[in-house]
Each structure stands twice: as C-alpha cells, then as structure tokens.
UniProtKB/TrEMBL annotation, chains A, B:
<dbReference type="InterPro" id="IPR010982">
    <property type="entry name" value="Lambda_DNA-bd_dom_sf"/>
</dbReference>
<dbReference type="InterPro" id="IPR046335">
    <property type="entry name" value="LacI/GalR-like_sensor"/>
</dbReference>
<keyword id="KW-0238">DNA-binding</keyword>
<keyword id="KW-0804">Transcription</keyword>
<feature type="domain" description="HTH lacI-type">
    <location>
        <begin position="3"/>
        <end position="58"/>
    </location>
</feature>
<dbReference type="InterPro" id="IPR000843">
    <property type="entry name" value="HTH_LacI"/>
</dbReference>
<dbReference type="GO" id="GO:0003677">
    <property type="term" value="F:DNA binding"/>
</dbReference>
<protein>
    <submittedName>
        <fullName>LacI family DNA-binding transcriptional regulator</fullName>
    </submittedName>
</protein>
<dbReference type="InterPro" id="IPR028082">
    <property type="entry name" value="Peripla_BP_I"/>
</dbReference>
<dbReference type="Pfam" id="PF13377">
    <property type="entry name" value="Peripla_BP_3"/>
</dbReference>
<keyword id="KW-0805">Transcription regulation</keyword>
<dbReference type="Pfam" id="PF00356">
    <property type="entry name" value="LacI"/>
</dbReference>
Length: 350, 350
DNA sequence: GTGAAAGCGCTAACAG
DNA sequence: CTGTTAGCGCTTTCAC
C-alpha cells in the first residue's frame, strides 16, 4: 500500500542504494542528474520514509524521550516544549512520558523508551533521592546506555550523566537573603517531597542563607508537601494551625511573616489558602515561590519568585545529548543561573 | 550488543516463533511449560523488545501522535496529559509536537508522525479555517489514513474524523447569558485568530446569546488576538484606547462593562492590562475567560470562566482512535459539556 | 502446539 | 559514482 524506497528507485530507474543515498543523506555522493531524478520520483509518488525500518537498519531511532512528572504542570510543560523544539530542530520527534514521580512508572517509562531505541532520554523529573527505587532505575538507565543510548538530566542525577544544572541552591539562597533584607525573621518553608532532588537543593539554599544571617532552627519552619497547588495549600494550613495553637497556648507572634514555597504551583496554593483565611498578602504575610512559571505574575498578588529559563533548559539538555562536544566540566555540565524576581507578594516585614 | 528474541529463544531452547508468541502476545497458544521457560530466559537475559523491529514487522508502531500548538500552554498541556495517560494505559507511548499553529509546521509534523507509523494522530490544536493551508494538511492526513492510520480530533475538523466535541458554542452562550443576567449591556469579546475553529465557535456562542437578548452590533465589540497572554493584553488595550478616544470625542460610557476573553490565557493578559491601567476588576469592568485552566482560580481576581474537562477530552480522543466501537453518531462524535464557573472577576454591571 | 522460513523497508558494506 | 546483497529483529504464514 505505502510507497517504498524500492518503488521510488524503480520509478527513477536507479538502484535501491542510490535512492536511499539521495533521499536519506549519506556520506557518499550522487550525481546531480540522478539525484534530481530520484527526488522527482519521490515526490511524484508521495514517498515518505518508513521510520521504524530506518531505525531498525540504523540501530537507532529518530526520536528522543522525555521523562517528567506531569506535562500539564507548567514547570514540566515549559521544559517539554524546550526539548520538543530542540528535537525538532535536529529532525527528531519527542516522546513524552508523565510519571507523576512514581518510581514504578518511571522504570516502566524508561524501558519503553529504551525499547523504542530513542536516540536520547532527557530526565526532567526524576530527582529521586530514595536509594532503593533509584537503584533499579539506574540499572535500567545503565542498560540503555550500554546499548548506545544517551541520558541527559535536568538537575543532578549523579555523575556520568550530561547535566543541566539550574542554580537551585544559589537562587533559593538569594531569595532568602532578599527576604531577610525586608526584615523577615520568622520564615516558613514549604518544600517538596524528600525524594525530589530539586526540593532538597532549594531547601538547602534557604537554610544556608538563613543560618548565615544568624537565624536559628526555631525561626525557620520547614513543612513538606507535594509540589502541587493542593500540597501547598495543605502545608500552609498546617503551618498556620500549629502557630495559632501555640499562640493560644501563650506564645505570641509565632506566625511566620513570610512563607517561601519552593515551587510556584505550590505558592499558588499557599496564596489560595491565605486568601481563604482572610490573611492579607503581603501586608500580614509575604509569600514567594520558585520557577517563575508563565502565570506567576498574574497570581493574586503577583508572585515574587526565582526565575529559571525552563524552555532553554530543556533545549540545553537536548544539545548536551546530541552534541558530544557540548557542556564543560568532567560531568559535562551546563550551569544555568537563577534570578530573583520580586513582585507584589512580598513586602517589608510587618 | 542488545539481547534479541533470538538470544532468548536459544537460551530457552525453543524456536524464534515460540519465543515471539509468548513474549509478544499472539492468537496462538503455547504450553505453560515452554511459556514459563521462555519468560524465565527473557528476564534472565534482560530482554527488551526492539520496538522499531516490531513496528516494521507489524506495519504499525506502538506510538500515538499528538498535534498541538504548544505543550507549555495549560490548555494543551492538560490535553497532552490526558492523551499520554490513555496511551500509556493502552501500552503506547505518545509523540508530542508543538507547532504554534503554523500550518507549515503542522504539515511537517503530520508527515513525521506518519513516517513513524504512529497508530493514531490526535489533532488537538489544528483548528484551521483557512482553506488554503487546510487542503494540504487534509491531503497529508488522507495519505496517512489511506495507509491505515487513524485520525481523531478535539474540536471539529470536518466529517470523517472521530471527534471529541466540547460544547464551545453552548458554553460561550451560557456564559454570555450569565453576564447579561448581571446587567451587562456593553460587552467586549477578545477572540482568537480567524483560522482557529474553537475561537470561531466560541465567538458564535457569544454573538448568538447577545443577539437573543436583543443586543445590537454596536454593543458587542469583537477584537481578535492571538490566544496568548500578550495577545489578550494588547487586544484589551486596543479596546480601551478606542473607547476612550470616542469618549473624548463626545460619546459617553462607551467603555464595555465586561470583557470576555475566549481563552483563559488571554484573560490573564486582559487582567494584567486592566491592573496596570488601574481599572478595578470587577468593580469597573468584569472579566471572564474560557477553559478553566488549573490556575484560573488563582488569578487576580479569581477568574470566571467556562470549564472544559481538558484531560478527559484528550483521553477520550485516544479511546475514539483505539476503540472502533467508541463514539456515537455518524461522525463518531463524543460530546463534552462545558460548565460556567462564576468567580470573583465578574460582578453586577456598574 | 511448535518450528522453518519468508519477508517488513531500509542501510551499509562490498564490489564494480 | 552506482549497483548488489546481506542483514537489522521481529511477526507470521505454512507445514509438520
């Protein structure tokens, strides 16, 4: 049914090999005359290469895989876009898998991508810290690499992988310092699940800056949450309830004057909960996020955050994968700067 | 290098055919004894099927393609997530292509997906109305279908395609009616580019409801914009500038009392522009959007909009593609209801 | 129920 | 520079 290379070759009166050479690039060269004939036949017949056949013959496909938590999440969506665009520029298609951060599903996704013989796998959201799940995933990744696959990561996944390294720690530290500069002395941090490397790095940045400014452990409340809107909402609710209970028990002013959510999505939930409780932001409590997702500036109030060039990071991960010369340092790393963006959700401490 | 089916067969002491039958399903049955042996060998050796080879032999791949404007856009991101999940449930991987609505890129993407021999193509964001570009795209799609491909669409693409049909027109009409009920009599509509079918349908819904309520052409201002934040922002700026100019020229009260942006992203831009101009929402002007993207409720103020079950729509499109019995009506359509959600951005007309 | 063998469409030596 | 040919790994008749 479909037009094959053979059909084109016959129609052009050349051999299969020649047709292949002109249509699907090759080192060897073909005379312009035959070349033109083949091209003419190809589009007269409406030839479209059979990618699986090419992948089989070449032992590598024309696709690139992306592993992330959720494409619908603005953070990952932007990365997926960057990966997709860079892949397209290289003539590749991108396979996107949303795993919700579930190690079992990540493992399965990696196997599927491996089976597809994708040219490379970009790890965008698999920042596990859990060694157990990590081992099996590493094995799957190793098997893939042993067969010529390339793995590249956004956020550290250990040495050996080309890595795009956003300055999570530095950005978080800078943000914290800025907040401290506004006079805040009691700060609540809504961080992500322990297994997420980004969450850990960002948390460390906050803690580090707080400690450097002489804040003690009691002045920095850390609350874990999923990196989702509801996670942020619930986390801030717990923080406030606890503070209020302490207040009633005699303490005073134990409420934090600022809450730093380590992801914008989370911060959106924090804002929602605060609004619902009638707590004015930033008059009573300041709020900051991280990532600077596209809608951050449209939240109520406009969210102060740390900007990361998400799409570029995705593109960079692809470049690292496809270009053996890209990246520097022994782990082939690309460092990405984070930039503090102060908007309306943060103000001088009351 | 890689472990092949042949290796497994040899290791298990059976033929290639038998190994294939047990590992990659088939109508024929194999004794439990051999079956077990093969499975044991397979995972002793760490066998992973070669998807391209399977695709070549079977003449169809284990992937599904999604064509959309931009994965990073919440509307499409949610759809992509739904498609990806449904695909995963069917054991398939999903290929995502962002085209920014550019017909040339859409055409190219369709060809790439066809070349990959994807099992189906889900058209999520190709609602062109422009017949010129449409023709070439239809041809590419037809060629794909002639070779056994299945095309399914979200939003109407003409008969012949299985279609998931959100009630754009009805939702827009209902929203408009609700606005009219709040006393608004001068309404501005920020719609999308002419080539986008969704934009047209939604616009028609608004116009229809307005006409039914006896509003004349002068009371409904229509402004086109790209369906992006900046598009919405610029559109509302044009609307206001024009109204203000008219005001100065002697007219009075020509400013609309409500602006309906036919996409939430657009509405976010509208809100931003209004905020910048110091116009209070909803006190001076009400604003409404469409889609109910996840962050709609977190905008400033919380956005009134029309909810569409985006992820479900994506999943439904996949079901339509994979299950020949799915969908009803001659065009195999699945109707999806839209629900008006009134939040803080709309209020009684001043 | 199981195996042998013929492709699927293309690439890449290898000759000429 | 061009053509011949042997696979790539798997599925699938077709015999046994």
């Amino acid at each position: 049914m479909a037009v094959t290379l053979g059909d084109v070759a016959r129609h052009a009166g050349v051999s299969l090999a020649t047709a292949s050479r002109v249509l699907n690039g090759s080192a060897r060269t073909v005379t312009e005359e035959l070349s033109a004939k083949v091209r003419a036949s190809a589009d007269a017949l409406g030839y479209l290469p059979n990618a699986p056949a090419q992948a089989l013959a070449r032992a590598t496909g024309a696709t690139i895989g992306v592993l992330l938590h959720d494409v619908a999440d603005p953070y990952f969506g932007a990365i997926a876009r960057g990966v997709g665009d860079a892949a397209a520029r290289a003539g590749l298609l991108s396979l996107v898998t949303s795993t919700d951060g579930d190690p079992e599903r990540e493992l399965h996704a990696i196997r599927m991508l491996h089976a597809q013989r994708v040219r490379a796998i970009v790890l965008a959201g698999s920042g596990y810290t859990d060694p157990d799940a990590g081992r099996r995933i590493d094995e799957a990744l190793a098997a893939y690499r042993d067969q010529g696959g390339i793995v590249t990561a956004i956020t550290d996944h250990g040495p050996g992988y080309g890595t795009v390294l956003p300055d999570n720690r530095g950005g978080a530290a800078e943000l914290t310092t800025a907040l401290l500069g506004l006079g805040h002395r009691r700060i609540a941090v809504v961080t992500g699940p322990e297994r997420m490397r980004v969450a850990q790095e960002r948390l460390e940045g906050v803690l580090e800056a707080a400690a450097a400014a002489g804040l003690g452990g009691e002045e920095v409340l850390v609350e874990r949450a999923e990196f989702t809107r509801d996670g942020g909402r619930a986390a801030v609710a717990r923080i406030l309830d606890r503070a209020d209970r302490a207040d009633r028990a005699g303490g005073a002013g134990v409420r934090p004057s600022v809450v730093v959510a380590l992801s914008d999505i989370c911060a959106a939930g924090v804002l929602a909960e605060l609004r619902e409780r009638g707590i004015a932001v930033p008059e009573e409590i300041s709020v900051a996020g991280f990532d600077d997702i596209p809608l951050a500036t449209d939240l109520a109030p406009a969210l102060s955050t740390v900007r990361l060039p998400l799409a570029d990071m995705g593109a960079e991960a692809v470049r690292l994968a496809l270009d053996p010369a890209a990246g520097s340092g022994d782990g082939r790393q690309v460092l990405v700067a984070a930039e503090v963006v102060l908007r309306a959700s943060t103000a001088q401490a009351p």
